[in-house]
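Final report, closing paragraph on structural work. Over the funding period we assembled a curated collection of sequence-structure pairs, and we close with a single example.
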Amino acid sequence: MSPARLAAIAAAALLAISGAWWLSTQRHLARAVETGSPVLPDLEASINDVTSIQIARGDGTQATLRRDSDGWRVVERNHAANSGQVRKLLLDLAALAVVEQKTSDPKRYAVLGVDDVKSPAAKGALITLQGKTTTTLIIGKPEGARAVYVRRSDQAGSVLATPQIIVDADPRRWLDTLLIDVKPNRIRRVAITVRDEPTYIAERSPGSQGALALTAVPRGREVGDPAGVDALAGALAELRFDDVEATGASSPASLPTGSMSRFDTVDGLTLDIAERQAGSRRLITLVATGSTESSRTEAERINARTRGLEFEIAGYKASVLFRRLEELLKSG
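Its predicted structure, as stored:
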């Protein structure tokens, strides 16, 4: 047999071996990322063992959620987390299933947003789950309305998976933002002091469930907005905040405005609220006291959530808590 013939046979054999090897690796890869298989196969059984969740982006934004005896907390804010939101994230991660295999080439990761988040240019978010074991997953770009590109950071292969998970590394987005919820019919009396103005009081008649009314009106003036006076009773109904920080954490140049409000309930609870401005931000502190056994218990429960903290609230909410008397009177 001629040398040329032998070379051709050898080349064909090598090609066949290479093809078989490639098919073998593809079959193995296909089994590893079979459509419908869980991205995090161990998470469903161990979901209640997760004690810490960290979400980090390349730009340095980071949210750390930690479970303690009182439930989930946002570490960066030292405040309670929205436990329902945390639970949903864990359930969605456990349900995350492969739609199809995508790239294993690191040079292509950025296209899907699954590149290493140590790079400031990275678009994805790294989720680190800690419990009995540690699991890491990079959540990349969404695809359509139902899927997302993901990659386990300890693996080369990326996949398109469902359900779509879009996570936020801003700690504010994980807070339980309900500050207090006192229904209007519980409010008996409201006293408001706006900076550089005298205190005014609105209250119900003793034993009455009627509307709040001003106890005194400046000489020669009349109430122009009775409904607005009564609306003061609803200022603490499902009052939510936007952000929270340790008392005095903002610039020392940001001083208390002098605006204060006191809400007394029919069952003995008193809530004192003071305002401080930090630039355009409106920050409040809240302190509760009680005059009966049940109201003292409630007050301590409230103070446990608010002690040592200032809460940023929207400007329109601050405008109700510290409403100027002039706004309630007829123009003179």
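The first strand starts at residue 52 and ends at 57. Residues 22 and 160 are 23 Å apart (CA to CA). We thank the funder for supporting this effort.
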